[in-house]
Amino acid sequence: MNTKSKKQRSISAYSDFLNTSLDAFLEKTLNTNAESVALSLFHDVAKSVPAYKDFLAERAINPSSIETFEDFQTLPLITKENYLQPYPLSALCRQGQIDSSDTIAVSSGSTGKPTFWARFFTDELQIAVRFEQIFHDSFAADKRKTLAVVCFSLGTWVGGMYTASCCRYLASKGYPIVLITPGNNKEEILRVVEEIGSNFEQIVLLGYPPFLKDVIDTGISRGINWRQYQIKLVMAGEVFSEEWRDLVGERIGSQNPYYDSASLYGTADAGVLGNETPLSICIRRHLAANPVAARALFGESRLPTLVQYDPIVRFFEVNDGVLFFSGDNGIPLVRYNISDNGGIITYDAMLEFLAGYSFNPIAELQTENDRGARPLPFVYVFGRSNFTVSYFGANIYPENVSVGLEQPAIRDWVTGKFVMQVKEDADKNRFLSIVVELAPGITEDKANPETVASSILTQLLRLNSEFSNYVPEQYQMPQVELAPTGDPEYFPVGVKHRYTRKPNQ
Q1: Which of 188, 209, 262, 410 is buried deepest, with most CB atoms within 10 A?
Q2: Please, are residues 123 and 330 in contact by the beta-carbon 8 Å criterion?
């Protein structure tokens, strides 16, 4: 892309963003055939992206044979392993040109090796609409002087910089929003709140749920009266319970859980894929109180994150409980599988299902507010299916932990098997739990769980840049429990071992 075309593309997209209301953006979605948009994206990518051309050619797929949406559904899924990793970054961009983008962000891989993601200014503008939904529909930030405090990690990692950009775009659109970026520096966040928070009608803290809770709890211990600041929360990276939302909401003085917080379903691969809305929160809270209905809808006893999404920006499909999506970016993605377990539900199907359980979320919302009931489809997400756990927004992989157990001081004590999970203590604080299987003949008195935990932590900090940058130091040390060989709860003999465990398993 030459300088002139980049400039014109930027001017056109920015003008469109600034001059189009949120209502108009979402009205366009409702009047557009999302399947046709996905099909058009495929043909554009097949024509303009060298890596995807080669990907199709290797599989003897002629792009001109893909004429209908049914044809589109036969296309092979792309993954990091079969598409992103085999090709150089330039080949994944249109015309093979990295400079068709203007930003490169980073996410960590399973061994700490980063994945690079190119994107352009216009890619951020379409995601800014997701932030606009939250700031407009949930927080009424079009009418209230708002301080947006970015508490995500800054630097090359995608979350903080992306969030900061999108908040600035909203400010430039006329929202009375002022942005400040302390990142995940807790002391700086608290200083910002105390010194300038009173200049605003509300403060929005944007960060990972357990980190925001830590900020809030630390503030309370220092005498900060959060209620006076009208705190709102924007979160990402974690599935949390409605009990957690209630606890944190109580501590900040939340008056209405539907409108005081929202979670983003995001990924470094493509920005924000969907977002909680007052409607989705209303529904999720009802289902949390009605586990029979929740299990009937989601097929599991655990409660997933439930968000709404714009299908012409991120087009979701699902197969065997695994989500994949298509969307335009600096690295455009067609039927991309990020290994998230979940499903999709149309707006009408959701309301029909709830009516069967005598619940009308639209009527419930209207008793509180006239915003946030948009007829967009829903996607629900249980989390990654590839044996990772998410902790303070960092993906922790079994490979990282294994290295810690393979160190000379540790390896004679253990078999190498372990189960990791994120748990909550009585005060709803998250911690990383790792149950490690002792080697045959080794008893707990011959091994030292603190030494094991320290070895694991050393390797996590060395191998996983997300962990070292996202997780506050006081929460980094895992809590290690040693279990005997063949422990029936964690290491049953003759059963395929799973290195992660979800809550309530």
Answers
A1: 262
A2: yes
Task: Choose among 474, 501, 468: nearest CA to 156.
Answer: 468
- Rounded CA separation 439/405 (Å): 12
Show the 3-state SS of 80-120.
HHHHHCCCCHHHHCHHHCHHHCCEEEEEECCCCCEEEEEEC
Residue 110: predicted pLDDT = 45
Nearest to 313 by CA among 26, 105, 7: 26
Query: If DSSP codes are grouped into helix, strand and coil, which group holds residue 73?
Result: coil
239 pLDDT tier (thresholds 50, 70, 90): confident
**pLDDT value, residue 111:** 42
Q: How far is CA 410 from the centre of its chain?
A: 34
Q: What is the pLDDT of residues 77-123, one digit of tens each?
A: 999 899 999 999 999 999 999 988 888 888 765 445 678 888 888 88
Q: Are strands 202-207 and 146-150 parallel, antiparallel or unpaired?
A: parallel
Helical pair 278-288 and 291-298, crossing angle rounded to 10 deg: 120
Q: What is the pLDDT of residue 238?
A: 76
Instruction: Tally the residues of the chain.
Output: 505
The conformation of residue 67, written as its DSSP 8-state character, comes to -
Positive or negative, the CA dihedral 405, 410, 415, 421 is negative
Backbone region of residue 321 per phi and psi (left: phi > 0; alpha: psi in -120 to 50; beta: other values)? left
**Cβ(282)–Cβ(352) under 8 Å?**
no
pLDDT band of residue 69 (cuts 50, 70, 90) is: very high
Give the number of other Cβ atoms within 10 Å of residue 74's Cβ: 11
| Cα 231 from Cα 206, distance rounded (Å) | 11
Report the DSSP beta bridge partners of residue 306: 380
Nearest to 179 by CA among 171, 188, 190, 189: 171
State the burial class of residue 313 (Cβ atoms within 10 Å of its Cβ: 0-12, 13-18, 19+): buried
pTM of the complete model: 0.83
Q: Which two tokens stand for residue 67?
A: 């004429």
The letter for the amino acid at 376 is L
Confidence band, pLDDT 50/70/90 cuts, at residue 176: very high
